[in-house]
Amino acid sequence: MLGICRGRRKFLAASLTILFVPAITWIYLFAGSFEDGKPVSLSPLESHSPRYTASSQRERESLEVRVREVEEENRVLRRQLSLAQGRGPAPRRGNHSRTYSMEEGTGDSESLRAGIVAGNSSECGQQPAVEKCETIHVAIVCAGYNASRDVVTLVKSVLFHRRNPLHFHLIADAIAKQILATLFQTWMVPAVRIDFYDADELKSEVSWIPNKHYSGIYGLMKLVLTKTLPSNLERVIVLDTDITFATDIAELWAVFHKFKGQQVLGLVENQSDWYLGNLWKNHRPWPALGRGYNTGVILLLLDKLRKMKWEQMWRLTAERELMSMLSTSLADQDIFNAVIKQNPFLVYQLPCFWNVQLSDHTRSEQCYRDVSDLKVIHWNSPKKLRVKNKHVEFFRNLYLTFLEYDGNLLRRELFGCPSEADVNSENLQKQLSELDEDDLCYEFRRERFTVHRTHLYFLHYEYEPASDNTDVTLVAQLSMDRLQMLEAICKHWEGPISLALYLSDAEAQQFLRYAQGSEVLMSRHNVGYHIVYKEGQFYPVNLLRNVAMKHISTPYMFLSDIDFLPMYGLYEYLRKSVIQLDLANTKKALIVPAFETLRYRLSFPKSKAELLSMLDMGTLFTFRYHVWTKGHAPTNFAKWRTATTPYRVEWEADFEPYVVVRKDCPEYDRRFVGFGWNKVAHIMELDAQEYEFTVLPNAYMIHMPHAPSFDITKFRSNKQYRICLKTLKEEFQQDMSRHYGFAALKYLTAENNS
Fold first, then answer.
1. Mean of the per-residue pLDDT values for the chain?
2. Contact 109, 137 (CB under 8 A)
3. Where do the segments described as Disordered lie (predicted)?
4. Which of 16, 380, 504, 729 reaches 20 to 30 Å from 679, CA-CA?
């Protein structure tokens, strides 16, 4: 409706202009043709009159030029008016199509200012439509841990505004593929398809090009998209990872219909003086057309580019320019611009609001009259959010909005658009449909099947396990209220750590800021932080443990909890124990005895002798001896006090020690959420699989005090919670009996006797 009103106002303005401009012009000319109250002839035949001075000659020539200018303006206005009358509002074509009104680009190499005027003026006439269910193809080059985080924010901004199915083509290295494949698989967004292309295989295509840009070799890979992407893909929008959308990407997709002739590249003019070569003394950029073009947002007509032999075109250009330039400074952008300099007909210039560049030395503030005009924001400075711009607070807030936006809300269906069959989604729906919604424990049972969006390796991770095959990873899970334990654990355990963090999108960003501000955490590259995003009302403790267990790179793991501090030197002690007890060839679970303190400030014992002294003094206690003795009683602390060699203990009901096991041990059972039986069930299954429990005589860990968790409060205060937990326990034991047969009957007997 707003677009129609704008169109009518534009129509009226054009009409009035056509009517009044000629009239006013001729009145002005007529009045100016009098001198001393008498008319002055404009005929050249009368130019020799004595009264015709040199001054009046110049005046007349000026008037004639003005007449020609006005007539030209009138012709343009009439043409626009006739086009507007002929087009009218776009017709609706049923429920299966939608027309997006698109702003006009210049389509040629005009100045930035001309691009602003032409670009920010909307025309409301009928434009080429993007069908409602037409798939929009987007290509992104992504490598590493940080870029993977950036991609998520970009994708959120696209999903937030989109009305069309999307197909993302991700050119990713092994790290980014692992992270993003898991993320999208667990995100389960309808009408979104993801395909990966191995960036490492493409390195040989561009590795011969020296590049000084911080993006490295991956910053050159957009050059080979015609070769990399499927041969039947005709067009694609190519985006940098540091892009934020403020509108529906379908509007940009519709611009393809405006390409004419040999135009195959849609680009926004560069908004800095980089390619003018005047930023500093002896600054020598690559050749470019005027200010050049920025490649953060590119529209590629792949089919035409292939016919033009794009591969040969850019390679020859790069080889020629590198003879004098020696290397690229802005990666692929330099080569794209060098090609365009030689072949300006290839480019369709997009309005600058499709790529508002917040780089150093940018002129982006001249690109828009109001921030509401913006379509795409490009954080193309190494400073990112710290870049200078008078509207940077607005840009930063828009970016942070998507950064912290709950990604689960983007799992909305596109009504009227059939989605491709997703086996995982169909299986999930089938499992949920089999649950009884009238069951009082329905929410507990449903949680077992909930798919939580998961972002692996949220921070940089770099670790190669020891070559002697004795390496051990500490595994734990936590939520936001336990972040303060991370630094202490890192100081106590120098080996690799795998952590699953249960956070909301906003909390994940708080964690990121916390970690980046910690010298202790930033100095450790062997800690894998895996974000499992919040969903539902329960804390999925065993899912978190499974996520952390699954993503370790060592042959052994120490299954701990975040509230425990391991003794100093435990990492090396466990590696020696692995060899001593032949863990590689036997089914053993090595028990690390657990103790606790009620003091928030503790002088941590540096030896077993010091710990025993603190036990005798009442500074330390065996873990949960006063509230849950059965949980750790089988460890036999009395024997441990004097033990000098490992000793074996038998499983007993409710036993839940902290153990070191091989990485191929069974997962935790997901039916147990929140508080209660989550570790007990796992130890029971280890026993059913005939693991031997062995207590380590010189190992210990100490539980640090903290406020009661929300889940234990629910357990204590909610009778239905306790009833459902009891029901789940019974069902687990029945499953054990079915799976392990006669040997599992002892668990039912032990439970009845306890």
1. 82
2. no
3. 81-108
4. 504
* Last-in-domain residue among 410, 442, 473: 410
Nearest one of 558, 584, 583 to 571, comparing CA atoms: 558
Q: Is residue 117 in a domain?
A: no
Measured at the CA of 167, the angle between CA 245 and CA 396, to 5 degrees, comes to 15
3-class DSSP assignment, residue 481:
helix
What's the CA gap between 620 and 623, in Å, rounded? 9
Does residue 394 sit in the same domain as residue 460?
A: no
Judgement on whether residues 595 and 738 belong to the same structural domain of the protein: yes
Predicted confidence at residue 346, as pLDDT, reads: 96
Cβ atoms within 10 Å, residue 283: 12
Q: Burial letters for 182-204: b for 16+ Cβ neighbours within 10 Å, e otherwise? A: bbbebbebebbbbebbebeebee
| Residues with Cβ within 8 Å of residue 413, at least 6 apart in sequence | 190, 191, 419
* pLDDT tens, position by position, 28-58: 444 444 444 434 333 333 434 444 444 555 5
Same domain, 586 and 707: yes
Give the strand pairing for 594-596 and 701-703. Answer: parallel
Residue 124: both structure tokens together: 């409301």
Same domain, 269 and 375: yes
What mean pLDDT comes out for the span 436-453? 84
- The residue out of 356, 391, 410 marking a domain boundary is 410
Q: Report yes or no on 54 lying in a domain.
A: no
- Give me the number of domains the chain comprises: 2
Q: What gap in Å lies between CA 406 and CA 745, rounded to an integer?
A: 45
How confident is the model at residue 36, as a pLDDT? 42
State the pLDDT at residue 279: 66
Instruction: Note whether residue 593 is domain-resident.
Output: yes
pLDDT for res 381? 63
* 461 and 387 within one domain: no
Instruction: Based on the fold, state whether residues 464 and 402 are members of the same structural domain.
Output: no
Q: What is the 3-state secondary structure (H, E, C) of 704-753?
A: CCCCCCHHHHHHHHCHHHHHHHHHHHHHHHHHHHHHHHHHHHHHHHHHHH
C-alpha to C-alpha distances, 21 to 29, 38, 564, nearest whole angstrom: 12, 25, 83
pLDDT of amino acid 428: 73
CATH number for the domain spanning 317: value is: 3.90.550.10
Phi–psi pair at 648, nearest 5 degrees: -90, 145
Q: Is pLDDT at 102 greater than 50 in this prediction?
A: no
- Tell me the whole-structure pTM to 2 decimals: 0.80
501's enclosing H/E stretch is strand 497-503
Rg (CA), the chain: 35
pLDDT of residue 536: 87
Contact 366, 112 (CB under 8 A): yes
Indicate if 696 and 612 belong to the same structural domain.
yes
Average pLDDT of span 552-576: 96
Shared domain for 390 and 462, answered yes or no, is no
Range of 219's domain?
136-410
* Residue 432 lies inside a defined structural domain of this protein: no
pLDDT of 737 above 90? no
Rounded to 5 degrees, what angle do the CA atoms 707, 710, 715 make? 115
